[in-house]
Design brief:
homodimer; alpha/beta; Nucleotidyltransferase, domain 5; 9 helices; 36% helix; binds adenosine-5'-diphosphate; binds zinc ion; metal-binding (chains A, B); EC 2.7.1.4 (chains A, B); fructokinase (chains A, B); ROK (chains A, B); ATPase_NBD (chains A, B)
Chain lengths: 289, 289
């Protein structure tokens, strides 16, 4: 049996399942402090005979296998988890192969394997919720270089009529600072979920997300872009993105059919945990190979 | 013997060499019309016993092996070369494995194999000359998805004091529109090579290139960034980039040591042709495998 953890800032989703993506049992544990949360995580998995584990984690995290802090959550603002060596701690209890990557990379892998990008060798998964994060599978591999990408903080151009200064603590008006859920709430004075009928909210949101997607397209050229997270529940955002993207492109690259290119997650909220299961499966195979 | 072509908008560089990157003979042929240019190209290679060929071409080009127009230069403004099936034409004369990619991807491959990124599994090569183009090797492979990246036309933010509107025919003020050689010449009224002592020119250039590099870093996280092309001959540009990049980053990601991270091509102007030789070598191995 394979074990999967989707380690988020508010909750840990733990599941056991198999390499077909089937989930056999699942539990949700609140993210408090490592001593508490991890105790419950470990207790859950101890019920099963597991052969490998996959962890998709909030970040930033250290995924460089040559680094002494490999397997840690690094500079997170959640102080209790800062520099927490999650993989090493899990290894103590479960001396099995453990795959480790970001939550958004796990979701990208899940979608590429069983979701909206099934059968394609590349896709980009972007989530717009409390923050903005994105991960990519390119040529069949989770994209990784010096570190994992941090695509949520790219620079975009502010709309001339948007006077909101942005909420990113590092950049103020980067993509996350202008377009994540908290930015929407602060700009319009109401939560996104209560703004459904306010057209201009999603029009502006689409304007910013289309800019971001244009950069991803030009730099990566993924075969599918999957938009998830709380904000993606607003159908109007997709419409606005599909309207603005060709304007921003200005006829430069041949754009694919955007209805089929920018889509919702095929796995719904299960993209992350399913991807973590695939991280486990990959870790198992790499160990054997 | 391996054959290599660096197909540029003004000249074709043709070489024969081996898989160690050694070039045995080389010739430069002006880019006029296909019937003329290709006749000389073919005549050069007919002198040798070649087993595989690599072509790094100006673009955009079709590198999708499942596409009917695979191996063509597609929508170039150089009308004589528009839709020219360069790989098919070469195959008629040389029925051998032919690797085909963009000129900048070839340069990235050359640098990753024998140049400034030797020993690393990823790098980004960016050239700033008549245009801006970039290619990347990620996890040992030339980055490719729906198509090859078109990283030269990403959006950047205009400097508040820069009133120049930009020269990109598609976007006006994209990266290429603001920062390529022709933009420099038009903004300042003199060719870049004559502006060496004008500090503000390279300060602004560095401001724009640092923005671009920040996006590449956030989205790809390459292990090295190599800056080539005519404009990179200005040492002041490197200094300005290294100054602006940390400002733009705002303490967000851990930046590598920029002196060793953003560098000149290790192969000088030979990056492209050496990379094309490696494209030939890859094509040969893929054929045999
Ligand atoms: N239906 C909705 N429409 C617009 N915004 C939403 C919606 N649901 C949640 N959000 C916003 O998304 C953010 C939460 O994102 P979510 O993806 O649900 O969780 P998280 O990012 O914390 O994992 C909040 O800022 C919330 O206001
Ligand atoms: N030393 C230099 N300093 C600044 N700009 C230069 C220099 N040399 C060439 N350029 C500019 O770079 C452009 C030519 O780029 P180059 O890389 O040499 O060729 P291409 O891009 O056509 O292959 C021109 O716009 C030229 O003005
Ligand atoms: Zn930011
Ligand atoms: Zn442009």
């Amino acid at each position: 049996m394979l074990a999967a953890i989707e380690a988020g800032g508010t909750k840990f989703v733990c599941a056991v399942g198999d390499e077909t993506g089937k989930i056999i049992d699942k539990v949700t544990i609140p993210t408090t402090v490592p001593s508490e949360t991890m105790k419950e995580v470990i207790a859950f998995f101890k019920q099963y005979q597991i052969t490998a584990m996959g962890v998709g984690s909030f970040g930033p995290i250290d995924i460089d296998q040559d680094s002494p802090s490999y397997g840690s959550i690094t500079s997170t603002p959640k102080t209790a988890w800062k520099d927490y060596p999650i993989v090493q701690e899990l290894k103590k209890e479960f001396p099995i192969p453990i795959g480790f990557n970001t939550d958004v990379n796990a979701a990208a892998l899940g979608e590429a394997t069983f979701g909206a990008a099934k059968g394609l060798d590349s896709c980009l998964y972007i989530t717009v919720g409390t923050g903005v994060g994105a991960g990519a599978v390119m040529q069949g591999h989770l994209l990784q270089g010096l570190s994992h990408p941090e695509m949520g903080h790219i620079l975009i151009r502010k709309h001339p009529e948007d006077s909101f200064e942005g909420v990113c603590p590092y950049h103020k008006d980067c993509l996350e600072g202008l377009a994540a859920g908290p930015a929407i709430e602060k700009r319009w004075g109401q939560k996104g979920s209560e703004l459904t009928h306010k057209e201009e909210v999603w029009e502006l949101e689409g304007y910013y997300l289309a800019q971001a997607m244009m950069q991803y397209l030009l730099i990566l050229s993924p075969k599918k872009i999957i938009l998830g997270g709380g904000v993606s529940h607003q159908e109007a955002v997709f419409k606005a993105i599909r309207k603005h993207l060709p304007e921003i492109n200005g006829g430069y690259i041949a754009l694919p059919d955007l209805e089929n290119y920018i889509v919702s997650p095929g796995l719904g909220d299960q993209a992350g945990i399913t991807g973590a299961l695939m991280l486990a499966y990959k870790a198992l195979n790499e160990q054997i190979a």
